[in-house]
Design goal:
By secondary structure, the chain is of the alpha/beta class. The chain is built from twelve helices and eight strands. The protein has an eight-stranded parallel beta barrel, surrounded by five helices. It binds 2-phosphoglycolic acid.
Length: 257
């Protein structure tokens, strides 16, 4: 049985003061929700303050990126040793990093290996853009992204990480995928790739989220799908009432499965 996981990707939003206010607003309600793992991913500058507020609490903390090296002359970068003290998770390979900051399948793989070696659990993002989707390349592209991201990882490592399927055309557009459409990519393409790289048991144990315009109104459509184990939420995770409602609804939908 895979524990559902709802993660909030705050992107480049929230000062430290705003971040702590948001956590205070939703902490209590999130703590009340059982059966779903909850992860908040604020910007680097707010990690320490949010970590303090979450202690002790079952809510987990994640970073939005990291370098693969432990230390060195890499101005502006943040290392796994620095995150280790604060976080349990780290988002790796978000499409915005691939699109604007030169992230490649190779650096995604390096970061995944380094995160796992340092006890951080990657939330690895994959997904096609609109042109690729319309050209019927989704399956091929996502298979290649998953294969590259997981290169040299053991089956045991793969079952601890999270894969997020985020079609780029659905991110921040208000045009979410359909539940059935996302389930097909997640079940056949992503879980299928994990099964062919490892084995069926590994594929069945690995958690895979959907991301892209998830809201309180559509979360049930995704969570009632058999292969979707949670959501990576952007815009709606910045509003306490929406993120709480999404998480509550996710827990409820899981009971309906
Ligand atoms: P969105 O972002 O929910 O605002 O579409 C999702 C993401 O990019 O992780």
């Amino acid at each position: 049985m895979r524990t559902p996981i709802i993660a909030g990707n705050w992107k480049m939003f929230k000062t430290v003061a705003e971040a702590t206010a948001l956590v205070r607003e939703m902490r209590h309600d999130l703590n009340e929700i059982e059966g779903v793992e909850k992860v908040l991913c604020p910007p680097f500058t707010a990690l320490a303050a949010v970590a303090e507020l979450l202690r002790p609490s079952p809510i987990k903390l994640g970073a939005q990126d990291m370098h693969w090296e432990e230390k060195g002359a890499f101005t502006g970068e943040v290392s796994p040793l620095m995150l280790q003290e604060l976080c349990q998770y780290v988002i790796i390979g978000h499409s915005e990093r691939r699109q604007y900051f030169g992230e490649t399948d190779e650096t995604v793989n390096r970061k995944c290996k380094s995160a796992l070696a340092h006890g951080l659990l990657p939330i690895v993002c994959v997904g096609e853009n609109l042109a690729q989707n319309e050209a019927g390349q989704t399956d091929k592209l996502v298979r290649a992204q998953v294969t590259a991201a997981l290169r040299d990882l053991t089956a045991a490592q793969v079952t601890t990480l999270v894969i997020a399927y985020e079609p780029i055309w659905a991110i921040g557009t208000g045009k979410a995928a359909t539940g059935a459409g996302a389930n097909a990519v997640i079940g056949l393409t992503i879980r299928g790739t994990v099964a062919s790289l490892y084995d069926e048991a590994t594929a069945q144990a690995t958690r895979i989220q959907y991301g892209g315009s998830v809201s309180p109104d559509n979360i049930a459509e995704f969570m009632t799908q058999p292969d979707i184990d949670g959501a990576l939420v952007g815009g709606a995770s910045l509003v306490a009432a929406k993120f709480v409602a999404i998480t509550q609804q996710a827990a409820k939908s899981k009971g309906l499965r």
